[in-house]
Amino acid sequence: MWRRAASLSPLLSPSKSSLLHQGLCRLTFWGAFTTDIMHPAKGGIASKEKLPFITFVLGGPGSGKGTQCAKIVETFGYIHLSAGDLLRKEIASNSENGKGKIVPSGITVKLIQKEIESSDNYKFLIDGFPRCEENRIAFEQIIGMEPNNVLFFDCPEDEMVKRVLSRNEGRVDDNIDTIKKRLKVFSALNLPVIKHYTEKGKVYKVNAVGSADEVFEQVRPIFTEVCNRISAGFEVCDYNNFKRFWMD
Ligand SMILES: Nc1ncnc2c1ncn2[C@@H]1O[C@H](COP(=O)(O)OP(=O)(O)O)[C@@H](O)[C@H]1O
Ligand SMILES: O=c1ccn([C@@H]2O[C@H](COP(=O)(O)OP(=O)(O)O)[C@@H](O)[C@H]2O)c(=O)[nH]1
Ligand SMILES: [Mg+2]
Fold first, then answer.
1. Contact (Cβ atoms closer than 8 angstroms) between residue 61 and residue 129
2. Residues 29-59 pLDDT 10s
3. What is the pLDDT of residues 215-245, one digit of tens each?
4. So what's the ipTM on this one?
5. Residues with Cβ within 6 A of ligand 1?
6. Which among 82, 131, 160 is the best mutation to test ligand 2's pocket, defined by most ligand atoms within 8 Å of the CB?
């Protein structure tokens, strides 16, 4: 069963230099009461009809993030951004960013930002990111906001190992040695990020054991509730957040 730690209140990060700030400064007092942002400066995230509604999808390697994201896309019309896929594409394109070195957070965030800015949707699943505190902080500084919520697939290690070893996607990192390293990274670096958002009441924790359809039956009511809150106008624009953000 899934549970959410506390009520959700998407807080915009107070950092004034953020992209959103440049855009939102144009927000009129009246605009703060509506769910649609006035069309501010050209380009950038804030020039879209609405603020991006962002869900981080986290969990260990093989916990089922990609599989469940595909089902959420199909059922609820989100855009699925897999940070791992974006990085693999970079490496394949042999760009400066991907030549075998460990990509710094800022570059991963910019890959994600580019996808958000070029999409005509405003609901995004960011799959497999952030993977550490440094990732999380870079996202907040560059994008200028926190995620609206976080979906965490909780899966026992032996089940994750079994699934990754039978995942025949031709990935060079799907072997027993690398999976063990990735599991160590997950518990050392990813779990503190999940703890951070749990303390902010933003995490929906889902038991990832069971068939993909059984797991999705836990995911479905979460997104039904979230979609209801978005259409009620609460999630995309919370006046108090904007007032604090706008008046500071
Ligand atoms: N609930 C499940 N039960 C069994 N196998 C699953 C389940 N969910 C996903 N898989 C399979 O396990 C592998 C890893 O799933 P994936 O969605 O890629 O996980 P992640 O993106 O978290 O690494 C894939 O081969 C996928 O088909
Ligand atoms: O923001 C990210 C996302 C992924 N990765 C790297 O890309 C690999 C594959 O990530 P992906 O999410 O595709 O793996 P999965 O959890 O789906 O097996 C990870 O092990 C990381 O080493 C990274 O460095 N930063
Ligand atoms: Mg994946």
1. no
2. 333 333 333 232 334 565 555 679 999 999 9
3. 999 999 999 999 988 888 776 544 334 434 4
4. 0.98
5. 59, 61-67, 163, 167, 210-212, 215
6. 131
